[in-house]
Structure formats: C-alpha cells, structure tokens
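We treat protein structure as text, and this decision shapes the records that our systems exchange. We quote a single record here, exactly as it is kept in our systems:
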Amino acid sequence: MSQAVSPVEITTPKNTIPLKATNCQKNTTMNQNDESSRPNTPTPSEVIRKKKDVQRQLKQLAKPVVWRFVLALSVDWMVIVGAMLCAGMWPTWWVCLASVLVIGTRQHALGVLGHEAAHYTATRYRKANDAIGMLLCFWPIGGSLTGYRRFHQRHHRHLGTEHDPEMHFFQSDEWKIPVKTAAPVWRFIKGCLGMQILDYAKLIRSLLPKTKTEWVGIPIWWACFALILWVLDSLWLLGLYAIAIPTVFWALIELRGWTEHRGIAETHRYKTHWLFQQILFPHNVWMHYEHHQWCYIPFFNLPKARALDETTPVVQLRDVFEFLGETDHEAYARNNGSHLTLDHFSDQVLHCS
C-alpha cells in the first residue's frame, strides 16, 4: 500500500525533497493575480486583424443597391403625388396648406437622395446614377446635380473652416451661438412663411449647373411637369408644388444643416426621435457623423456603419440644442467626444474631396 505524500513535499523517483520554495508559489500566485487584473490590451496582431475585419465590412457596406434607392425614391414621390391629389380633390385652404407642408418635407427627402447621387451611391453605374439624381431628385426641386456636387465636395474638403460654403448660410444673428432654442425655431417658422427666400436665392446661385445638359434639362423638366398638370386640368397644382420649395423645403434644409456642424469643428453625433427622423432627417441623414467618416456608404447602411464605431459617444438631439445654448463648447467636446476622427479603424478611409 503506497504511503500518502505530504502536501509540503515533492516526490521524485530517488528521494523526497522538502518543499522550501514557498516564495516561488507566492510569486507565481502574485504574477497570476497581476495578469488577471491587467486590462485586456489587444496584441499588435489582434489590432491588425481588427482593422482588416472592419475594412472588409466597410467594403461590403459601400456597395450601392439600386432597388433600395429606387424604393425610397418611389415612396417620396408617392407621398408628393398623394398630397397633390388631396389638394386637387378638396381644394380648401387648409387642405392646400397641409399639402404644401407634406410636399415640402418630401422635397427635402428628394434633396437628401440627390445628395446620395452626388456621392455616387444610387447605383454603381455612374451615368445611371447621375440620370436618376438629375431627373428624379435635383431637377424637381430646381437644383443641379453637377452644381451641388462641386458645392458639396468643398464642404467635405473644408469642413468647419471659412472655406466651407455651408458656413456662409449661418451668418445671421439668429444662428449665432450661444443661442436659445426659440431662435432657430422662430427662424424655421419664418422660413416656412417664405421670409428667408433671399437666402434660398443665394443657395441657388451657389448650385448653378456645370453642364449644358442641366442648363437645358431643368427648364424642359419643369415644362413637361406643367404640361402633364395642364392635360389633367390641374395646372394650378404646379404653383402649390413650386411654393413649397422656397418655403418648407428651404426651412428644413436650413434647420438640419445648422444642427449638423454648429458649435464644433466637425460633426455632431446624435440620435433623435423617429418622427424627427421622418420629417427633419429623412433617409438616415441624421447619421451625419458617419456620413462624414464614410461618405461612400449608402444611406441605408449607415446604421451598420455606426455600429462599427463604439468609441465616439452618441448624444440626443436635445443635448445638441442644449449645447448650442452653452458657452463652454470646448468642455462639451472634451466630455462628449464630438469631433470627427476619420480613421478610427482603417488607413484606407475615403476622404470625400
């Protein structure tokens, strides 16, 4: 019968050695505790693997899906047509007013989809991309795809600087910060009433067509639109549609643009209520932070792109408005990380210039 081994002895084939290396045990235990208490810092190979994985995901997200774009476009146009039909069937002042409001929100949505086409994310075929962007997005709101594309490239290239063309539309006292929430709301109401039409005219001058195709195409499009309504004995609806552009459409453009970049050098990263997403921020345009990081990703994949960045905080839209009423903007940027980092994961992020 074998003899039990003492817990303080180590048995070898030749003899039994008293365990005097008690300090080694203690040191080993301490090292194990130290290792378990250390933060789980990724190794260089893990970092490289993470970058490659994110690059692969971004590449997948960047693929245009034309049916997704056409579906969103079709819904916007159906709402516009529906609003015009309602006004035509019940031409009371309040139905017409409601129709103008609805049409203006969808014209804004068309502008957002036109912005997608300006980034070549409608379809991978560039000629088809531009044709859709011109005929169904920009020309119906009196805009130019080529003019907007050049304007918007300068916005991405000179974001937040004096060379950013969008900054020139927020020079009035009502937009200056710190500002009370009532000021931009009042500005929005005045915009809906057509009291900011001079600013809208300034925008149109900034977006003049850069090609003969658009110089000729825009008036032809509007002539065809008028002809269709005339044939339907509803030419007066053209005025209803057109008046929404320098009023509701422009008021929405101004307010949204103001919430995206004001008060910081780059872009706010926020979330907002579903209703605001539909009216003020259609087609995921409220994910403007992600757009400025990865402007080649179509709007319907921006939520997935947002999920890839877990480091930059996301605030509520109301927090942005509260911030714009504060004076210590640098403290806000430090606490909320509201700055644009173009390269969280990848050295191959596309700069939108």
